[in-house]
Amino acid sequence: MKRFFLLSLVICAFAYPVLAQPVDKIVVSGEPPISMDVIKSHIKLMEFVLNARMTTAQKNRFLEDVKNECADMEKSAREDFLQAMDLIKKMAPMDETQKEAVRSVLLKDYEESAGEDETDPAAQLFLKLQESCGKNLAQNGSFTFAIQALEAFEEFVGFSQNPDSPQILTPEQKDLIFKVTSAAFSKFSVDVQETLAGFDRKWHLIKCAWAAAKDDMKGKWAETLKKTVNFESPDFKLNETTIGAVANPNLIKEMTTFAATLGESECGWVATSSVNIW
Fold first, then answer.
1. Where are the domains of the chain?
2. Residue whose C-alpha is closest to residue 86's, from 30, 31, 5, 25
3. Rounded to two decimals, what is the model's pTM?
4. Which residues does 229 contact at the CB level (< 8 Å), separation at least 6?
5. Residue-by-residue DSSP string for the chain
6. pLDDT tens digits for 26-85?
7. Which tens digits make up the pLDDT trace of 153-212?
């Protein structure tokens, strides 16, 4: 992977001090070891370049790919892979113009690396994300509903059933959500369409809100969520009406607004998140 060597040409003009960070969990042993902070740094960079947010399932797949591909990686390649974390820290004080310069270099290099090296887990995941973000399932005016938003919404439906232990939907349930949202998107209210558009970014904020909220606030949210998704009820069915109710604009606005008070953003650059989520 050459992307971080190329980025050094962009960053060398900005000599920012980097503070020492606590030791975090090692996910791939060896020399040098690869930690969760490195994994999260690669995720943050991909999200930054694509102006999107990864789902939990996508992050899990990336983590497994890294474990598999990096186990036998040579030391020099590992050192290159680890540079993502340093890049994140150095970008923190940059202004928007400087960050856009980095974004441009990263975008080009991710695309080139994916074509040159099929074992590069970050570049390969980037291509999949790029496709998910760019393929719209439905559109009505300025509101678009892409595959990436759909996959995030599917996770949210499972979360709504039990926020503390989210349910993983069956392939049949996911397929039904796909068919209903794609066909009925333009029929939903404007508020619901706006909520579903770019839902991957809202899902990030919802997870941040849940992780940081106190028990009384969580209890109120969970009660509202349970009213919209209850797989245990024999009367509950995933259809246009229930899916529209799950995409509760008022509740989601409340949760995302709370996350914003913590310093989190849908797609903005937050070098050091105030909330630890996955």
1. 3-132, 136-261
2. 5
3. 0.88
4. 157, 160, 161, 236, 242, 246
5. --HHHHHHHHHTT------------EEE-SSS-EEHHHHHHHHHHHHHHHT----HHHHHHHHHHHHHHHTT--HHHHHHHHHHHHHHHHHTT--HHHHHHHHHHHHHHHHHHHHH-TT-HHHHHHHHHHHHHH-EEEEETTEEEEHHHHHHHHHHHHHHH-TTSPPPPPHHHHHHHHHHHHHHGGGS-HHHHHHHTTHHHHHHHHHHHHHHS-HHHHHHHHHHHHHH--TTSTT---SHHHHHHHS-HHHHHHHHHHHHHTT--SSS--SS-SS---
6. 999 998 999 999 999 999 999 999 999 999 999 999 999 889 888 888 899 899 889 998
7. 999 999 999 999 999 999 999 999 999 999 999 999 999 999 999 999 999 999 999 999
Residue 94: closest CA among 22, 13, 154: 13
Tens digit of each residue's pLDDT (9 = 90 or more) over 82-130: 999 899 888 888 988 999 999 999 998 888 887 777 777 887 888 899 9
Q: What is the Cα–Cα distance from 267 to 253, expressed in whole angstroms?
A: 16
Read off φ and ψ for residue 144, nearest 5 degrees: -120, 150
